[in-house]
Specification:
By secondary structure, the chain is mostly helical. It folds into 2 domains: 54 residues, no CATH class; 230 residues, no CATH class. It has a 3-stranded antiparallel beta sheet, with no helix packed on it. A two-stranded antiparallel sheet has the order 1-2. A hairpin with a 4-residue loop joins strand 3 and strand 4. It starts with a helix and ends with a helix.
Length: 365
């Protein structure tokens, strides 16, 4: 019932939004005064799609908010290699003044650093290799540091107190997660070999979880919403799956137990399935984390969209937008845990499938 009520409320909100938007469009068709035309020009200057993309894409700075011409941000180091410009150049991204100025023969255009000539125009002849520490990279290293500090601290407590002393502090909070991943992910999917893969499964689970949660902090980067990040995780899982295969697995791929006339169709499908499994891991995590951030940003942007039509509508819709934003934000916290679990669980499932023949043999003996 609650979910139906939420859906109904969403339909009402977007219906009102569509009605107001259509009203604004009809008003634009009528003759306007010069002041009204200027107001519409200011409204057109607000581009929600551009702001949403800037929020979910990578950048060379951590941008928190802007007040007029004042931008509160943390610029990151820029590391460029341009053979035609004397090799390496290292400086702060703040030198560009948010893309408004040229520094050392380079300029930032829509987040991409390019070489420019004396007139300030882009010089296509100069090749620029960007090795900068972007916010995704910096935040990923911060998340990795946090993971190491937390896990090493827990490991030292286990080493010091042993299994006879009851866990305390953060160890007490993290131990149920260990047992959950072991009992609900490792043992059911990997059988007797679960201990061999538990270090990898736990590392993947906590690394994704920490990046998901840190990405929800305002002003931070959505690392798990970057396809390059999920691609690397998917490739690593793909290699682990391949190195866990046995002859039974490959026999099932190239000589499936089906009638001969079906094999020419089934063999390519089974072989393609080897690559679609890690692809599913990559796209699932990426799409879910990007979608959540887009939804949150859209609800915030609705305030400014309504405000561009009418100040009364903007202030009136602000409480509704904030309520939905907070609601989706808490949903995203839940999604952060769910996506870490799904990625880890599917990885264990795929590894277990690659070892399935060996499991059957041992069970028979």
């Amino acid at each position: 019932m609650a979910s139906k009520s939420v859906k109904s409320l969403l339909i009402v909100v977007f219906s009102i939004f569509s009605l107001l938007f259509s009203t604004g469009s009809l008003a634009n068709e009528t003759p306007q005064k010069e002041g009204e035309a200027a107001g519409n020009h200011e409204a057109a200057a607000f581009d929600p799609a551009k702001l949403i993309m800037e929020h979910i894409m990578d950048a060379h700075e951590f941008h928190f908010f802007s007040l007029g011409e004042t931008h509160v941000s943390i610029p990151l180091p820029v590391i460029l290699y341009a053979p035609d410009r004397g090799g390496f150049s290292v400086f702060s991204y703040g030198k560009f003044h948010h893309g408004h100025e040229v520094y050392n023969g380079f300029k930032s255009e829509e987040g991409k650093i390019v070489a420019v000539n004396e007139a300030g125009e882009v010089d296509e002849a100069v090749k620029v290799y960007d090795f900068s520490l972007t916010r995704n990279v910096v935040q990923m290293f911060l998340a990795l540091t946090l993971l190491l500090v937390l896990m090493i601290g827990v490991a030292n407590k286990y080493k010091k107190n042993g299994a006879k002393v009851a866990p305390s502090g953060f160890q007490n909070a993290i131990e149920p997660v260990f047992t959950f991943v072991r009992d609900e992910v490792g043992k059911p999917n990997l059988g007797h070999a679960y201990e061999k893969f538990m270090p990898y499964l736990l590392t993947v689970f906590f690394f994704i979880l920490i990046n998901n949660l840190v990405g929800l902090i305002p002003g931070s980067a959505n690392v798990t919403g970057n396809i390059a990040f999920t691609l690397v995780l998917g490739v690593i899982s793909f290699l682990v799956i391949l190195f866990s295969t046995n002859r039974h697995f490959w026999a099932h791929i190239f000589n499936p137990p089906v009638p001969g006339f079906v094999k020419p169709i089934l063999v390519p499908v089974e072989f393609l399935g080897i690559f679609t499994k890690p692809f599913a891991l990559i796209v699932r995590l990426f799409a879910n984390m990007v979608a959540g951030h887009i939804v949150i940003t859209c609800f915030v942007m609705l305030i400014f969209i309504f405000g561009a039509m009418s100040k009364v509508a903007g202030w009136g819709f602000a409480p509704v937008s904030l309520v939905f934003t907070i609601f989706i934000y808490f949903i995203e916290i839940l999604v952060a845990f769910i996506q870490a679990f799904i990625f880890t669980n599917l990885t264990a499932v795929f590894i277990g499938q690659s070892m399935e023949g060996a499991h059957h043999e041992e069970a028979h003996h």
